[in-house]
Write a structure and sequence with these properties.
This protein is an all-alpha fold and 125 residues long. It has one domain. Helix content is 69%, strand content 0%. The chain contains six helices and no strands. Helix 1 runs antiparallel to helix 5, helix 2 runs antiparallel to helix 4 and helix 4 packs across helix 6. The longest helix is centred in the middle third of the chain and has 19 residues.
Length: 125
């Protein structure tokens, strides 16, 4: 499983759970992103290792100043933004979770994630 396919499935899950108002699924998505961000055990890498394809980090930045993976920072950023928009300020930021769902889904379709590019530009590894 590639990170691109993972983003496509994550964005689709987020959009479907927002549309059908599935709070448990939204909490599971937030929990999964927090777990992956804190532990750095990412589902695409674990699936590739289980299939015997090896698990290499395709986004390693050789010019990194911050010794923290950009992919890991992206997952933590997604979790924090979802917590803020769905749990802390649901009346004011209801649109932000939808924006994130479409952005993550679009990143899965195109293979270009602007937030990940920004994090790598900020010199995350």
């Amino acid at each position: 499983m590639s990170d691109r396919l993972y983003r496509l499935l994550l964005g689709l899950t987020l959009l479907i759970s927002l549309y059908f108002d599935l709070h448990q699924v939204l909490l599971a998505v937030i929990g999964l992103q927090l777990l992956e961000g804190v532990s750095n055990y990412r589902i695409p890498l674990l699936i590739n290792r289980a299939r015997g394809m090896g698990g290499t980090d395709t986004y390693a930045n050789p010019d990194a100043l911050i010794p923290f993976d950009a992919e890991r920072a992206w997952r933590l950023t997604v979790a924090i933004c979802l917590i803020l928009s769905l749990l802390v300020f649901p009346e004011q930021l209801w649109w932000f979770a939808w924006f994130m769902g479409f952005a993550i889904f679009g990143a899965g379709l195109s293979g270009v994630c602007p937030m990940l590019i920004i994090l790598q530009y900020a010199r995350f590894r």
